Amino acid sequence: MSYETILVETRGPVGLITLNRPKALNALCDQLVTELGQALDDFEADQAIGAIVVTGSERAFAAGADIKEMAGFSYMDVYNSNFITAKWERLAKCRKPTIAAVAGFALGGGCELAMMADFILAADTAKFGQPEVTIGTIPGAGGTQRLTRFVGKSKAMEMVLTGRMIDAAEAERCGLVSRIVPAAELVEEAVKVATKIASLSQPVIAMAKEAVNVAYESTLAEGIRFERRLFHSTFATEDQKEGMAAFAEKRQAGWKNR
Ligand code: CO8
């Protein structure tokens, strides 16, 4: 499939999607979000792909929703079209592991998109912010919810109410990103981490991801119960037998993804 606003490639078992609207700092126009969703659908359906990396340019992961595109929308336009519909949430719905590799600006919808990935690897140049209030609106793709869960109420409130950007170091301190790497190594490092994940048992990885995500949507007791059920389920897989046998026999496991 050919795309106009993203670049799509595979690096071994990793699907790599690069947001590519350089003149608009990768602003998330409707076409880009549609194309991103299609590329994610394709990688999800491809059994050879075990993990997905989404990245942008050195200057910007994405500077938000496309302000010029949405500026003239009326209430009825956005209500009737359910603007920010399910397709904006596509990344959050992936079953395969996803990494956002962020350099430069990740603002508004760009920050929200990065937070939809399983984790964020940040370049030392990364800048995160929810500046929507400075243009007369509020975060609309999970910013008030996911950011608050990641960084806590106080910092989320300050960021959402003032639009202040935080740099990579502050983002790491407050738990928004998993770690920081030099900008020149960002994509290679993200692909390396994704390759490591993709080299493991895909169904077991999917269960681990599902269990962590439940921590955001349930009580501790429910989450622990859910985790235990999935943990027990791994003992029904061939890969649990293979992984533990390989450990005992001091050899590499040969995963069957079953
Ligand atoms: N939308 C459209 N165009 C943009 C956007 C954007 N969000 N951001 C930058 N651009 C364009 C600029 O208009 C400019 O285009 P042109 O050359 O034609 O004038 C080009 O990109 C380069 O930008 P600047 O000249 O402004 O570059 P600077 O380095 O001076 O500034 C900034 C960089 C600080 C990032 C600045 O561009 C900026 O403040 N951008 C807007 C950031 C913002 O407010 N983002 C929030 C948007 S609202 C939002 O995201 C709501 C979320 C709703 C859900 C989305 C679901 C994913």
From TrEMBL:
<keyword id="KW-0456">Lyase</keyword>
<dbReference type="GO" id="GO:0016853">
    <property type="term" value="F:isomerase activity"/>
</dbReference>
<dbReference type="GO" id="GO:0006635">
    <property type="term" value="P:fatty acid beta-oxidation"/>
</dbReference>
<keyword id="KW-0443">Lipid metabolism</keyword>
<comment type="similarity">
    <text>Belongs to the enoyl-CoA hydratase/isomerase family.</text>
</comment>
<dbReference type="InterPro" id="IPR001753">
    <property type="entry name" value="Enoyl-CoA_hydra/iso"/>
</dbReference>
<comment type="function">
    <text>Could possibly oxidize fatty acids using specific components.</text>
</comment>
<keyword id="KW-0276">Fatty acid metabolism</keyword>
<protein>
    <recommendedName>
        <fullName>enoyl-CoA hydratase</fullName>
        <ecNumber>4.2.1.17</ecNumber>
    </recommendedName>
</protein>
<dbReference type="InterPro" id="IPR029045">
    <property type="entry name" value="ClpP/crotonase-like_dom_sf"/>
</dbReference>
<dbReference type="Pfam" id="PF00378">
    <property type="entry name" value="ECH_1"/>
</dbReference>
<dbReference type="GO" id="GO:0018812">
    <property type="term" value="F:3-hydroxyacyl-CoA dehydratase activity"/>
</dbReference>
<dbReference type="InterPro" id="IPR018376">
    <property type="entry name" value="Enoyl-CoA_hyd/isom_CS"/>
</dbReference>
<dbReference type="InterPro" id="IPR014748">
    <property type="entry name" value="Enoyl-CoA_hydra_C"/>
</dbReference>
